[in-house]
């Protein structure tokens, strides 16, 4: 059980932190998370610069091996050159001990914000989210790392009511070396090649950034929603991708290796053609008609390339005409 109860003061290297309240997660947190008030020390050299008012305290459970592993990975990622100073990542303030860190506080997450179509402020928010997400991919690629946990709850936001949105990527405990992790990424954000047994690589991140936005705009269109059984989740998710992107060629069972993958691809092909719940999903262009502007649809479609070899890199997306066109729309 955590000792970080409200009112408890944690001593850090830079500042002290007074715990205020527990932060509710999305049933995916492997750590205890708290909002804290930053307490400056009298005559401390850290007072030379004005401190932020709030921080987020994350405490891994010492009895949970996965929680401790994620905490260790997150600290290692922040030690990589340029990560903690990059505007696209939530900043780390203090490593309190081997299972507790203090991080930058942001007001909310993308998962907590409602999508409003045809609103310029929404478009500005999406530009900020895309720029942060894709820039984070570029920086991690330089260190031969990939983030396997892109999702709306890990996109942190401040200033959404001011017109000057700050968007940052948080929760870096599942940033891993390129090609080292299989069966990763949240189901709704998982790239086609990862469903087919490949490890997460740089192109997998690009798909995930596009998918987290689509899932925010149209919840349930990707992922396990309405899946009839836990054992059918992979097949169900692949069938949804096939419905949205009919040009994706799901291999036959003769073309894949493991018995579980053989069953999944056969089921996915059947589901996408025969099940009413899935047949209700139209191809991407039709499914998003009237839900998002043409410029955003073109931009996301350029990222949703089923073949990872042909999928644009994060830097190519940011430099693309599709991104510039949507950015112009957001500025009108």
UniProtKB/TrEMBL annotation:
InterPro entries: Kinase-like_dom_sf, MAPK, Prot_kinase_dom. Residues 1-324 form the Protein kinase domain. The keyword Kinase applies. Keywords: ATP-binding, Kinase, Nucleotide-binding, Serine/threonine-protein kinase, Transferase. GO terms for molecular function: ATP binding; protein serine/threonine kinase activity. Pfam families: Pkinase (PF00069). This is Protein kinase domain-containing protein. It comes from Aspergillus avenaceus.
